[in-house]
Amino acid sequence: MKKTHLILTAGFLAASQIASAQDSTRVSELSTYTVTATKFAKKLSETGKVLTIIGNRQIEQNLGRSVADVLNESTGIVIGGVYSNPGKNREVYFRGATSQYTTILMDGIPVADATGLTGNAIDLRFLPIDQVERIEILRGTQTTLYGADAIAGVINIIMKKGGNKPVNVFGDLMFGSNRTMKGSLGLRGKQDNIDYNIAFTHFTTDGISEAARPDTVKDVFDRDGYRQNGLNATVGIQATENFRIQPFLFYSDYKSRFDAGSFADSRINKNESDFLHSGVRTQYALGNKGNIHGNFAYQRVNRFDETGWDTTHLDGRSYFGEVYSHYDITNWLQALAGVEYRQAEMINAEPDEDNSWDKHSQNTVSPYVSLFLKNFHGFNLELGGRYTIHNKYGNKFTYTINPSYVFSDKLKVFATVASGFKAPTLTSLYSQYGNPDLKAEHADSYEAGIQTYLLQNKLDLRVVGFKRNIKDQISYINYKYINFNQQRDKGVEVEVSARPIEKLSVKASYAYVDGQVTTQAPSGKDTTYSNLVRRPNHTGQIDISFQATKGLFVGTSVRHTGTRGDLYYAPNAWSAENIQLEAYTIWNAYAEYNFGKAKIFLHANNITNNKKYWEIYGYSVLGFNMQSGVSFSF
Q1: What domains are defined for the chain?
Q2: Angle 200-233-90 (CA atoms, 0-180°, nearest 5)?
Q3: Distance, CA of 373 to chain centre
Q4: How far apart are CA 121 and CA 79, in angstroms?
Q5: CA end-to-end span of the chain
Q6: What is the DSSP string of 83-151?
Q7: Rg value, the chain, Cα
Q8: Which residue numbers delimit the TonB-dependent receptor-like beta-barrel domain (predicted)?
């Protein structure tokens, strides 16, 4: 607790002191455009949504790392397993909610995993950072625009597209600790009315032992290696002046070794998984008044797990279709209307006596509409509603009310009231740990905040408070999915950024989240307790970067993760033991030298070689490690 406050205070003091320097560049981002907040291009000044944009420059500074690493540095997001062995599964905790409440998009299309144990969110290990152009993170309940899973927020991963000349070759090659190697190679370009991008990535590492070795055990635990391949291909065709069509294909697979659990080694457990995401995006321009969009996608996830006592082969398939349009009714009033269809199927390719099901599916049809009042004397308002028709859980209306007001480009105040509806996943209903009697979840979400630009626009400050209530919340407890009566979460996020001179940038952030669940005890009385497993109440981060010369860039970051609880399942135990995990701090650094068409880079992670902490109880963490390499584009 004290460390958290020290880091936060130091970050604010550093930002304030640097911001008092003489010359500055404007740090205001109100004129920046986003596509995720409203499904069409809109200035941040015209929406009250809480949005973070991780741009191409920041992505390029993370080559050699992963999408999970980048997201873990965003305010209010904790990625469980990010400091563990590279093959360890990554769990998204967004504003205190688990992965099942976060929608992950690729270029605006939801990417789903019907086999997922923690919800429909896609496995982040499938997504190579080398093929990402930028990431937009939309906070708070967004079910009106993005459907049932978007109760905590939305992460839109925007992939690389065609270039501005006929042929552009790009790639990178990286080597690192634990015999790690990653390389990518791609072609992108534009010729006449056709643009294209195709890229391939390969990653391999010996890793470390996934499970930690207890002090009482003398045997050496073996390394659990990991290998991944990724292919991204997109073609854009401007068929007519107004009509554009963009077929796409993304494929990724990985193989990993994994251990038998907390403190339990295994030399035979292995996993093979692959993900196919294919489809087409279309857009028809309605002059300068708006566009009609059509998005269609097919996704398939195959998972094959083999242990000493069991073999599991799951085949998950997802179908997505959406047509929507936005239109400028006047210069201050905009409308958005659409309808989407989703279907999920999960197939057990190896049914047995204990797990005899072979196939289950569910589908939804959801029309939605939103009105946007745009810069009406500084006032902006979004009113939206979605009507979800579920084949098993009936019909449900959800809504969004999002007003904001901008005072002279210096101060923006905003608020949101929204509702959400989420049906149980196929895994929670029908797997060997499933519960076919689960109820659907219903959410109410509230947030409010300010964003302001101080000291002649040298300092950008955003403060947001939120509260989220989920009725009949679903959790996985003691090898079974169950409904709780109510889940209540609340929190505060504070972000400060300063660019006092063109070459120097300082950012400091702090997030607080707390949550409790109410459920009935055997006596029939309600019991309330904290259940934010692996989710700290306090996180804080400081980032400092400096463009030392035209070619040399250096940066460093310190991230603090506060105390939190975990559940430990001892061998042969059918109930969990509550474990309290201590806080920890990680210090990373980065440097690059740019030669124009090529650059060399170096990552140094966990510089203090901190190994005396648990990220996940009973599992190893990476000590000091490095990655270095070269990237090029010509």
Answers
A1: 2-633 (2.40.170.20)
A2: 60
A3: 29
A4: 13
A5: 49
A6: TS-TTSPPEEEETTB-GGGEEEEETTEE-B-TT-TT-SBPPGGG--GGGEEEEEEEES--HHHH-TTTT
A7: 24
A8: 184-607
Phi, psi (5° rounding) for residue 400? -140, 135
How many other C-beta atoms can be found within 10 angstroms of the C-beta atom of residue 250? Answer: 24
Strands (E), 428-479: 441-454, 459-471, 474-477
Contact 138, 147 (CB under 8 A): no
Residue whose pair of structure tokens reads 């998972």 in the numeric block? 303
Q: pLDDT (tens digit, 9 = 90+) per residue, 574-617?
A: 778 899 999 999 999 999 999 999 999 999 999 999 989 999 99
Question: Between residues 13 and 515, which one has the greater pLDDT?
Answer: 515
CA distance 79 to 124: 10
Please state whether beta strands 102-106 and 153-159 pair in parallel, antiparallel, or not at all (unpaired): parallel
**Alpha helix stretches (DSSP H) within 301-412:** none
Q: Give the model confidence (pLDDT) of 421-450 as tens digits.
A: 999 988 888 887 889 999 999 999 999 999
* Residue 571 three-state SS: coil
- Cβ within 8 Å of residue 573, ≥6 positions away: none
Among candidate residues 450, 578, 467, the one with its CA nearest the CA of residue 512: 467
The 109-110 sheet, strands edge to edge: 50-54, 132-139, 153-159, 102-106, 109-110
For residues 62 and 351, what is the distance between their CA atoms, to the nearest angstrom?
42
Among 411, 407, 330, smallest CA distance to 373 is for 330
Which tokens in the block code for residue 431? 């797997």
- Output b/e per residue, 157-186; b: 16+ Cβ within 10 A: bbbbbbbeeeebebbbbbebbeebebbbbb
User: In the chain, helix, strand, coil percent, each to 5?
Assistant: 10, 55, 35
Place of tokens 């889940």: 487
Q: Find residue 376's DSSP bridge partners.
A: 379
CA gap 505, 509 in Å, rounded: 14
What's the pLDDT tens digit per position in 65-113?
Answer: 999 999 999 999 999 999 999 999 999 999 999 888 999 999 999 998 8
User: How many Å apart are CA 630 and CA 499, to the nearest integer?
Assistant: 28
Q: Which residues of 450-468 are buried (b: 16+ CB within 10 A; e: fewer)?
A: ebebbeebbbbbbebebeb
Q: Are strands 168-176 and 625-633 parallel, antiparallel or unpaired?
A: antiparallel
> Averaged over 196-210, what is the pLDDT?
96
